[in-house]
From TrEMBL:
Residues 85-111 have a biased composition (Acidic residues). This is Uncharacterized protein. Residues 10-111 are annotated as: Disordered. Residues 31-45 have a biased composition (Basic and acidic residues). It comes from Elysia marginata. Residues 46-72 have a biased composition (Basic residues).
């Protein structure tokens, strides 16, 4: 009786272990324990990476701001140039109109 009972329990234990292993197979390797020294080094590396990333982001932001400012200056200078050109054109037009008026006055005086 004892032998039969042990055989049944062995097979039941085997089947149970098989079912559990099918339901939850081990994924990857087990995590190894890190020594405190390794832990600190890892944390330092993480901090360095984070700091470097932050610095890079700040530099990128500064570059973008500088580019935006430069673009704004270019637009303003182009606007000023255009105003100057418009002013020169207006002066030329006024001079031409004055010359035409003078010519018309001279023609009227001749008649």
């Amino acid at each position: 009786m004892f032998e039969i009972w042990s055989m049944l329990t062995d097979t039941a234990a085997y089947e149970l272990s098989q079912r559990c292993s099918r339901l939850q197979p081990l994924r990857g390797k087990k995590r190894k324990e890190e020594s405190p020294k390794e832990k600190r080094e890892g944390e330092r590396e993480k901090k360095k990476k984070k700091k470097k990333k932050k610095k890079k982001k700040k530099k990128k932001k500064k570059k973008k701001k500088k580019k935006k400012k430069k673009r704004k200056c270019l637009i303003e200078s182009a606007g000023r140039r255009k105003e100057e050109e418009d002013g020169e054109e207006e002066e030329k037009e006024e001079e031409e109109e004055e010359e035409e008026e003078e010519e018309e006055e001279e023609e009227e005086e001749e008649d």
